[in-house]
Every structure is written in C-alpha cells, then in structure tokens.
Amino acid sequence: MEIVAISMNVGDNILKVRATIPQGVELVAVSKFHLNDAIMDAYKVGQRVFGESRATELKAKATSLPDDIRWHFIGHLQTNKVRMIMPYVTLIHSVDSERLLRLIDAEAARINKVVDVLLQVYVAQEESKFGFAPDELLQLIGSGIVNELSNVRVVGVMGMATNTDDENRILEDFRAINQTYQNARVLLKENNNFTQISMGMSDDYLMAIAEGSTMVRIGSSIFGNREY
What we know:
This protein is of the alpha/beta class. The chain is built from ten helices and eight strands. Helix 6 packs parallel to helix 8.
C-alpha cells in the first residue's frame, strides 16, 4: 500500500493526495485541531471540502473563513450541538441514532434548510466507535423514516475500519460497510440521493477506495500532526 510522503507544505500535500485519488471520489480534508492558516493553504490549491469533529471549532472556522468552503461534520455529534452547527454544515457523516436523525431534521426545518447526512455503520472490532450495527441500520431504512424527513436527505453511509495493522481485517471491514450500503440501496429502491460511501483515512484510504469508497477523510497526510 502506497503512503503519500508528507512535506511541510500543506498545498503540496493536497496535490500529492489528490494524485492518488481517482475521479469520482471526493476528498474531505480533515482540518480538526488545525489552524486557519493551514486550511487556507489547502484552499489556495483548490480544496473546498473540510471536515471538523467539534461543533465549536466548526462554527469558529466557518464564520472566519471563505463562504464557499463546504464544511462536513465527521465526529460523534451530541444532540445539544446540532443547533450550533446547522447553519454552517453541508454534510453530517456521523448520524448514529434515530433520535439524532429526527433532531437534525427538526433543526434544519427551523432555519429552512435541507442538510445531507450519512448513517454511520459500526463494523470495527473495538468498543470505542459509534454507529448502527448493519442489521440495525437496515431496520431503520426499512422503517421508512428516510422518506418521512422533510429537511434531511440521507445520502449514504459512513464507517471506519478496525484500528489495526492487519490489512485483511481492514479489507473485511470495508467490504462489510459496502455490503451494508448495497443492502440499504435495495430497500430504498428509487431513492436516487443514496449514493455515498464515506470510508478511508490517511493510513487506509487506498484500500477503502478499492472496496467502493466514494469519499475519503484525510487529515494527517495533508496537515501533519494535529495541533491540540
């Protein structure tokens, strides 16, 4: 597996990463814990999609950086933070409960906005990650809720592989995420919005793309180590 060599120049790193990503796969530059100057370095070479995992940080950056940036929320979203991010976010990757899904719909309706979301599927062999088990996600889809929501578009799934050096385990996890997506598509039938699989990060995004990812979330290969 090829790993992109990191330089001190964020713009150079973006271009190197992009060169490894096929057409049709979207790059989310994970800018959490990084300064606005670093984000602008990526912006200057054309990057417009950035991922944040803390509501207060996303709001602060969204209100001080260019308006054409598309902000994705990629972390665990607490219900009491939904209202804070709603004016700024274009895609929420991490919807992990029906309650959260309905709250996002209500908050989007409150400000007359339609927001895209991904349902987070949990397949990793560790306890620290959030999300629906594959059968729970399919049960939610089968309940018809996706067609009930007026201000949310469910556009796909998001998942993470087990944090391990075992590439076979990682590939199995990505295949399980993709299979859950395919099964959900069957249930949704003619829903043309359901097109995205968000999986893959700096260490494993090439494997994720090979297993069907349409969106990769890359931070350290672009920005280097996080500035906490």
